[in-house]
Amino acid sequence: MKGTSVEKAEKAEKVVKETYAIGQRIDKFCEICAEDRGHVVALVTKKGQISRVSCPKCGTRSTFKSGVPARAGRASAKASAPYDRTRTYRAGQSLMHPAFGLGEVTAVIEPLKIDVLFSDRVRRLIHSRVQT
Ligand SMILES: [Zn+2]
Fold it and tell me: What is the pLDDT of residue 130?
């Protein structure tokens, strides 16, 4: 934030400008998956507006139209098994994390690391940890 930003009052309606960062979650309709689902912000403009998003399910990158109301943190009706670090996950599986809530595995990074898309952003978790 630098100084005070004077917004031009061209329109009477309030425009709430949120800023985003790469890796955050945004809900969008995926034409490939044909469903409204969580996407990962892949590219943002200098002003923090979303430029491109990618679908963690099919991997499609698409443009993001600003002005479409984003419903962050929409709860899924699907019941998910609690996150278990000893379990081995695959991309596309969903889990319930005790702190972050419902998440979907977007990618297996390393044999012991997975990227999980939560209601706000992607977090890296461990999995396949062998109990000793
Ligand atoms: Zn998709």
Answer: 86
- Over residues 85-114, the pLDDT tens digits come to 999 999 989 999 999 999 999 999 999 999
Backbone angles phi and psi of 25, in degrees to 5: -95, 140
Q: Where in the sequence is the domain holding 31, given as residue range(s)?
A: 16-72
Residue 130 lies in a domain: yes
Task: Say if 80 falls within a structural domain.
Answer: yes
Residue 5 CA to ligand 1 center (angstroms) comes to 37
Residue 18 CA, ligand 1 centroid: distance in Å: 24
Q: Which of 130, 23, 132, 25 has its CA nearest to residue 84? A: 130
Give the residue from 53, 72, 91 where a domain finishes. Answer: 72
Residues with CB under 5 A from ligand 1 (ion): 30, 32-33, 55, 57-58
